[in-house]
Design a protein that fits this description.
Length: 336
């Protein structure tokens, strides 16, 4: 159900949350986890068709996981890459591409060729309830389950490159935050425009639809029931610290959907994190930039360990911008 429609029902939602908070929390959770399906086939927008054509060269596979199956697009490396240990028969190392809320694998396709040329197998897949994958709902536990299945199918995984909400899924998977899911192993992580706090996203959603204090508590209780841990456990900074391996953060200062302050928070996880501030690419255009794709490929291949000359120092004085206080925050949830 669209958030814009739920906003119109705020007085009803607030009253319902006061009278029957548990039921209202469950309904709100379902709405919170249900993305609008993008059009497939001939009715797709021309721009999306153009980007989607980049997947034509891939081998398409269906990867089962406990909640259904996901559509994976596999690109073999453009050259043979022999790791330090293992011979020519060693399996190619994989890089998994994770799109964001209401996105799909095609939106991450600009990263494929540079990573192939660096000697990696590239796997881009549609998250559950997105693209050609099954399901009607997506939340962090479901996303982690699907990522774990893809990681098993295409092991060894060298790196994960994730955008927006895909970054929240990657962090939870790499940190082992969801008790019922195995911890995903990778050597490197690149996050593009990813939020630092799922608790903050949940609070923004509750405020937007008018849950009130009782309804918000019920929503967070439902998240706890489904995930097996409280929503506070999905704090990106702590999860990134548990991962503890080389991480690249690419985030635009003009990102109006997920403010730059989120990247600043994540960058405080440890010295293994490198933050590269960008400009004039917003939240979505960052995925189509050749410069960004090259930066990611260099990082994944270990060719650019030192901060670039264009990296701007991050002020120790934190900004208070947040998803909850950003006028265009709905765009983050709706994928615009």
């Amino acid at each position: 159900m669209a958030v814009s429609f739920l906003r119109l029902l705020r007085p009803v939602v607030r009253a319902a949350a006061w009278i029957a908070p548990t039921l209202t929390g469950r309904i709100a959770f379902t709405a919170f986890c249900t993305p609008p399906r993008s059009k497939q086939g001939p009715n797709r927008a021309a721009a999306v068709k153009s980007v989607g054509a980049r997947l034509d060269a891939a081998t398409r596979l269906s990867v089962p996981f406990p909640c259904g199956s996901v559509a994976a697009h596999v690109f073999e490396p453009a050259q043979v890459f022999e790791p330090a240990s293992g011979g020519a028969d060693a399996p190619a190392r994989s890089v998994i591409l994770l799109h964001g809320w209401t996105g799909e694998a095609a939106f991450m396709s600009a990263f494929v060729t540079p990573l192939q040329r660096a000697g990696f197998r590239v796997v881009a897949f549609d998250l559950p309830a997105h693209g050609q994958s099954t399901g009607a709902q997506l939340n962090v536990p479901i996303g982690v389950a699907s990522l774990a299945a893809v990681a098993r199918a295409f092991a060894p995984v060298h790196a994960i490159v994730a955008h927006s909400f895909g970054g929240s899924i990657a962090l939870a998977a790499l940190a082992g935050t969801v008790p019922a899911q195995p911890r995903v192993e990778a050597q490197r992580l690149a996050l593009l425009g990813s939020p630092a706090s799922m608790a903050e996203v949940a609070r923004w959603f509750g405020t937007t639809v008018g849950l009130g204090e009782r309804g918000q508590s019920a929503l967070e209780a439902r998240i706890h029931d489904v995930a097996g841990v409280p929503v506070s456990d999905f704090e990106g900074k702590a999860q990134l610290a548990r991962f503890g391996r080389p991480t690249l953060l690419l985030h635009c200062r003009d990102d109006r959907e997920v403010p730059f302050a989120h990247a600043q928070t994540l960058s405080e996880a440890g010295p293994f994190v490198r933050l590269e501030p960008l400009q004039k690419l917003g939240h979505r255009r960052i995925l189509q930039s050749r410069k960004v794709a090259a930066m990611v490929a260099d990082f994944v291949a270990g060719r650019a360990e030192a901060p670039s000359a264009q990296t701007q120092p991050i002020s120790s004085r934190r900004t208070t911008a947040s998803i909850a206080s950003t006028p265009s925050a709905e765009a983050f949830r709706q994928g615009r």
